[in-house]
TrEMBL record:
Its EC number is 1.1.1.100. The keyword Oxidoreductase applies. It comes from Granulicella mallensis (strain ATCC BAA-1857 / DSM 23137 / MP5ACTX8). Gene3D superfamilies: NAD(P)-binding Rossmann-like Domain (3.40.50.720). InterPro entries: NAD(P)-bd_dom_sf (IPR036291), Sc_DH/Rdtase_CS (IPR020904), SDR_fam (IPR002347). It holds the Pfam family adh_short_C2. Keywords: Oxidoreductase. This is 3-oxoacyl-(Acyl-carrier-protein) reductase.
Length: 248
């Protein structure tokens, strides 16, 4: 039997990149997956099609995690389609780098609203349905410990994710709900490609600091998320798991 047979998972921001890979990995292990997207319905439909073609179960559900009603709707869709919820992957995130002189209120709210408020709103909606043995996985970033220049706002959001993970692990532990953060290094995704990071001095600098000597691939992250979602990680909670090839 697959590790997640009979389980239901919600993955936010799953129309591409790390979220898409996690959704496919969870489905491959038997979970029924809600593939959430904010704007790219086509991307989410492609992920759902790939899962169904491989014999899995998935449904695409739109919703902006930073809006309470839409965050609730994402969770409601899981219950409506599959009748339960066991795994929540808070993957939705945005990033823009900006030096301190250029930071604006708009920049701050755009990034904090998705990366922090969105995580809290979806988790709040999910907790009503999560039972003993459930797993919440927050996708953070190694930036919270690397603290690169010109990333005060983005790194601030990921520091908040680290702290919230610790709080919720203690708060939800009595209900036997596990909460962990999975903190990737640079990963080869559509977003990273669009931003022009691949092939840049930034990429060379990161690879030079990475003992395993390369940029991450989405499957490197998805396999660890699947571990954290499964009973293989039944004694793991409150952890910040860096998945970045050893970068510190």
């Amino acid at each position: 039997m697959s590790k997640l047979t009979g389980k239901v998972a919600v993955v936010t921001g799953a129309s591409k990149g790390i979220g898409a890979a996690i959704a496919k990995s969870l489905a491959a292990e038997g979970a029924s997956v809600v593939v959430n997207y904010a704007s790219s319905k086509a991307g989410a439909d492609t992920v759902v099609a790939a899962i169904t073609k491989a014999g899995g179960k998935a449904v695409a559900v739109g919703g902006d995690v930073s809006k309470a009603a839409e965050a609730q709707g994402i969770i409601d869709a899981a219950i409506k389609n599959y009748g339960r919820l066991d795994i929540l992957v808070n993957n939705s995130g945005v990033y823009e780098f900006s030096p301190i002189e250029a930071i604006t209120e708009e920049h701050y709210h755009k990034i904090f609203n998705v990366n922090v408020l969105g995580l809290l709103l979806v988790t709040r909606a999910a907790v009503a349905h999560l039972g003993e043995g459930s797993s919440i996985i927050n996708i953070g970033s190694v930036v919270s410990s690397l603290t690169p220049p010109a990333s005060a706002v983005y790194t601030g959001t990921k520091g908040a994710v680290d702290a919230i993970t610790g709080v919720l692990a203690k708060e939800l532990g009595p209900k036997k709900i596990r909460v962990n953060a999975l903190n990737p290094g640079m990963v080869d995704t559509e977003g990273v490609q669009t931003a022009g990071f691949l092939g840049s001095d930034m990429e060379k600098n990161i690879v030079a600091q990475t003992p395993l000597g390369r940029v991450g691939q989405v499957d490197d992250i998805a396999s660890v998320a699947t571990f954290l979602a499964s009973d293989d990680a039944k004694w793991v909670t409150g952890e910040l798991l860096r998945v970045g090839g050893g970068i510190h």
